[in-house]
Amino acid sequence: MNKKTLKMMLISLLSVALLAGCSAKKPQEVEPTEPPVPSVSYEEPAASSDLDNTKEVESQMEQQEAEREENLRSEEQDEQLFQSYIDHIVRSASRLGPVHLGDTLEDVIKNLGDNFTEETIKDDAGFFPEPLALLDYEGQIELWIGKKTNRVVGIKVSTEEFQTDLGFKTGDNANTVIDRYKDLYGEFESPHGGINLGWFEVEKDVVIIFDFIRDDNSRFNPEITPDSKVEYIELIYAWILD
After folding, report:
1. Contact 158, 139 (CB under 8 A)
2. DSSP label at residue 29
3. 153: exposed, middle or buried (Cβ count in 10 Å: 0-12, 13-18, 19+)
4. In whole angstroms, how far apart are CA 97 and each of 35, 47, 94, 231?
5. At 10, phi and psi to the nearest 5?
6. Could you say which of 34, 94, 148, 221 would form a disulfide bridge with 130 (CB–CB 3.0 to 4.6 Å)?
7. Cβ(232)–Cβ(216) under 8 Å?
8. pLDDT tens digit string along 46-85?
9. By C-alpha distance, which of 240, 201, 234, 231 is closest to 121?
10. Residue 32 pLDDT more than 50?
């Protein structure tokens, strides 16, 4: 091989090497991509059941508001009635022993002491304007006292120690008592109709009751005999009897 041929071979190899290097450095072409399509949210219209539920909730809220307003009106009416009830608890001029209607519990304890038992009077029908307590002094003196007003609304005695304003007591002749009270007071006429024997309205809204048969657990008297006697006496507000 001559020098000219060798030189030509070297030039050819060098050219191939240069071409290969240029080919390696050439950047790769990136194929264009489509731009992302923006997502669009779409809300389905409310189903009919959802609308029905909404209306039902709104109806319940309106009903609750109406009930709340009705309860407020009822509470206001109850408060007005109770205030009217309190206004009727006026200390009576009439008394049994030292106790008057309208006396406070403090007055009672001051006059009678605190040797009593106490129980709540059941009133399932709601006849009384307030809860009442029964104070029992050894079965001889019973007092009804309002638990809210703390005042005496009824007095019942079976002891001779407690006399009426006219000086009558248990053990007295029934005819004598009735004749005397008829001369001074009108017989009490029940709002339900009828005159009850031995009942007298001694002042406005205050009734005294003479009972001649204690064991029958009733305020109502049958026909009396010449020998009938007073077995217990009760002083009470007339509106309690309603």
Report:
1. yes
2. P
3. buried
4. 108, 80, 10, 16
5. -65, -40
6. 148
7. no
8. 556 777 788 888 888 888 888 877 776 666 665 666 666 6
9. 240
10. yes
CA angle 159, 162, 168 (to 5 degrees): 100
Burial (Cβ within 10 Å: 0-12, 13-18, ≥19) of residue 136? middle
Q: Which domains does the chain have, with CATH numbers?
A: 95-241 (3.40.33.10)
- Beta-carbon contacts of 130 under 8 Å, excluding residues fewer than 6 positions away, are 82, 85, 146, 147, 148, 149
DSSP class of residue 229 equals B
- Single-letter amino acid code for the residue at 92: S
> Closest by alpha carbon to 180, among 151, 207, 210?
210
Annotate 7-27 with b (16+ C-beta within 10 A) or e (fewer).
Answer: eeeeeeeeeeeeeeeeeeeee
Contact 118, 191 (CB under 8 A): no
**Residue 98 CA, distance from chain mean position:** 36
| Helix (DSSP H) and strand (DSSP E) numbers for the chain | 5, 10
Amino acid at 6: L
Least confident of 27-31, 120-124, 216-220, 230-234: 27-31
Q: Which residues contact 138 (CB under 8 A, 6 or more apart)?
A: 115, 116
Three-state DSSP class for residue 102: coil
Other CB atoms within 10 Å distance of the CB of residue 110:
12
Nearest residue to 233 (alpha-carbon basis) of 200, 184, 191, 203: 200
Q: Tell me 80's DSSP state.
A: H
Task: Give strand pairing partners of 173.
Answer: 229
Q: Rounded CA gap, 219 and 209, in Å?
A: 8
